[in-house]
């Protein structure tokens, strides 16, 4: 999955998966994102969370996310929809978008080479994120 993140949000999907997994929720079989995370954990591995862009504007974050989704192809991801091209990127040609997506993948590889693999397993996660508390049902 590819996503924009703010503060602790990079872990939000993993925290949600942990919570739903512990509750043996039906969402673990109906939600593709949660199902993929559960499959990784179920095989004894951790989920890799690679943060490659920091301190960028919201518009830039959307463009970078769109470029990565385009480069990796939506059908290979659990993202429900493609990214949002914003600002001047809306008029980029497909080759320009592909080139920028390739650049983003190269940046991600550079970060991965420097930081290495840090798999995240459910036991390493907090119960909830202070930035995205679970919704209360009334």
Automatic annotation (TrEMBL):
GO CC annotations on file: cytoplasm; nucleoplasm
GO molecular function, one term: DNA endonuclease activity
GO biological process: double-strand break repair via homologous recombination; resolution of meiotic recombination intermediates
InterPro entries the UniProt entry points to: ANKLE1
Source species, domain of life: Eukaryota
One Pfam family linked to the record: LEM-3_GIY-YIG
Listed name of the protein: Uncharacterized protein
């Amino acid at each position: 999955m590819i996503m924009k993140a703010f503060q602790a949000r990079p872990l939000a999907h993993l925290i949600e998966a942990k919570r739903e997994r512990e509750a043996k929720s039906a969402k673990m079989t109906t939600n593709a994102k949660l199902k993929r995370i559960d499959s990784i954990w179920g095989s004894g591995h951790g989920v890799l969370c690679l943060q490659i862009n920091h301190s960028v504007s919201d518009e830039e974050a959307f463009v970078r996310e769109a470029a990565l989704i385009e480069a990796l192809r939506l059908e290979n991801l659990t993202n429900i929809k493609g990214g949002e091209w914003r600002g001047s990127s809306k008029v980029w040609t497909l080759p320009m978008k592909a080139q920028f997506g390739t650049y983003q993948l190269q940046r991600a590889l550079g970060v991965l080479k420097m930081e290495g693999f840090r798999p995240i397993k459910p036991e390493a996660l907090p119960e909830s994120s202070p930035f995205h508390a679970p919704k209360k049902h009334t």
